[in-house]
Amino acid sequence: MDTIQSDNYPIYFDNSIDELVNFVNKGGYSRFFILTDENTGIHCLPLLKSKIGSEEGYDLIEITAGEESKDIDFCIGVWKMLIDFGADRKSLLINLGGGVISDLGGFAASTFKRGIDFVHVPTTLLSQVDASVGGKTGIDIDSIKNIIGTFTQPKAVFIHYDFLKTLPARQILSGLAEMLKHGLIQDAAYWAELKTSDLKNPSAELVHRSVQIKNKITIEDPHEKGIRKALNFGHTIGHAVETNSLINDADPLSHGEAIAIGMICESYLAHKKTGLSLDELNEIVKVLSDLYPRYTIQESSFDTLLAHMLKDKKNQGGKINCTLLTHIGQCNIDNICTEAELCESLLYYINL
Ligand SMILES: NC(=O)c1ccc[n+]([C@@H]2O[C@H](COP(=O)([O-])OP(=O)(O)OC[C@H]3O[C@@H](n4cnc5c(N)ncnc54)[C@H](O)[C@@H]3O)[C@@H](O)[C@H]2O)c1
Ligand SMILES: O=C(O)C(=O)C[C@@H](O)[C@H](O)[C@H](O)COP(=O)(O)O
Ligand SMILES: [Zn+2]
């Protein structure tokens, strides 16, 4: 599959781990560091190690798996390891993992000594189609999603599709939510193709298509002044539900599961506010409801959810801002939604 050129960096697909080794060898780095979590340390690191060969020249940093690690304490842990290992400004951080690793590692690297180079080797579907592309880095505070972060582009992205072979089915579904989002916001043909694909096992071609969509939008608007807000469809409500779940649930929602809920609610708002037809709403709800398990949202949590939505980064002047569909494959950014409308959309989800 073709390499995709982003703003200033390549996104490799075929032979990407060989490309990574070339990149490291030719980069003139004084030292490099590989950031993993406990699962990617087991499932993905051995391939990198076998290709790199020599055990010299790099150090490993491993963190606990899961969203709970995407916080300031783990970030300090990464910074301290870099200090202890003697990282200098010509060091490279290789983020080998899912979106938690690329967000946290990207943030740690973009702030360490005011910024060192980093690359992403995404190992989840979600990080291959979304988190590794576009330069958003970040951490959560008190489970408020990505509340601290930077826009910093990686030096390259290396997508090795076969890493997905060890990924649990629930994580495939999580990434699929962002792929479906890509179709809904920008490409009706892609949405139609996804609907008829083996969605429990998305092909490498579909991964490539999603990366093309995300990359095109983020090249146009890297700092989310305008059209990049399209990529936030489903996230105003989805992030609030995700935060609430991270705080309260023993087994929290994955990012994609929360965004799927957000996309149902925000499609309902789109039907009410931006002209999404009832047929289109029903089609979206059917696809998402068939894929994702029902999640219980209590009406008593609405105030808390609204409080989370009020912290969304798209808001201005205390008004909650959603990206809403006008049709399948098209969207409108900057739609102010009232608290009553947002609660009505949550009720719509509850009563489905
Ligand atoms: N920066 C962005 O543009 C962007 C975009 C979308 C999502 N995100 C963020 O990404 C995060 C979610 O990322 P995620 O879904 O990849 O979660 P994740 O990084 O937590 O990975 C999910 C699980 O899969 C495991 N795993 C990873 N690769 C594996 C493999 N190949 N085999 C077996 N297990 C593997 C991980 O250890 C983890 O347990 C969220 O924090 C979200 O906010 C960021
Ligand atoms: O890249 C983007 O822009 C996105 O909005 C992609 C989202 O899927 C992703 O979850 C992103 O991290 C959300 O960003 P945030 O600014 O709402 O925290
Ligand atoms: Zn997302």
The CATH topology of the largest domain is: Dehydroquinate synthase-like, alpha domain
Report the radius of gyration as a whole number of Å: 20 Å
CATH class of the largest domain: Mainly Alpha
Can you tell me the CATH architecture of the largest domain? Up-down Bundle
Tally of distinct domains = 2
The portion of residues assigned to helices is 40-55%
- Order of strands, widest sheet: 4-3-5-6
SSE topology string: EEHEHHEHEHEHEEEHHHHHHHEEH
| Distance between the ends | 40 Å
Tell me the overall shape: globular
Pick out the low-confidence regions. Answer: none
DSSP helical segment count: 14
Question: Could you characterize what this model shows?
Answer:
With 352 residues, this protein is of the alpha/beta class. It folds into two domains: 4-166, Rossmann fold (3-Layer(aba) Sandwich); 170-350, Up-down Bundle (Dehydroquinate synthase-like, alpha domain). The chain has helices at residues 16-26, 38-43, 45-52, 72-84, 99-111, 125-131, 169-186, 188-195, 204-220, 235-248, 255-273, 278-291, 302-309, 339-350; strands spanning 4-5, 10-12, 31-37, 58-63, 91-97, 117-122, 136-141, 144-151, 157-158, 320-327, 330-337. The strands form four sheets. Strands 4-3-5-6 form a four-stranded parallel β-sheet. It has a three-stranded mixed β-sheet with strand order 1-2-9. A two-stranded antiparallel sheet has the order 7-8. Strand 7 and strand 8 form a beta hairpin. The longest helix is centred in the last third of the chain and has 19 residues, at 255-273. The chain is globular, with a radius of gyration of 20 Å. Bound molecules: nicotinamide-adenine-dinucleotide (NAD), the ligand O=C(O)C(=O)C[C@@H](O)[C@H](O)[C@H](O)COP(=O)(O)O and zinc ion (ZN). Nicotinamide-adenine-dinucleotide binds next to helix 2, helix 5, helix 6, strand 8 and helix 7.
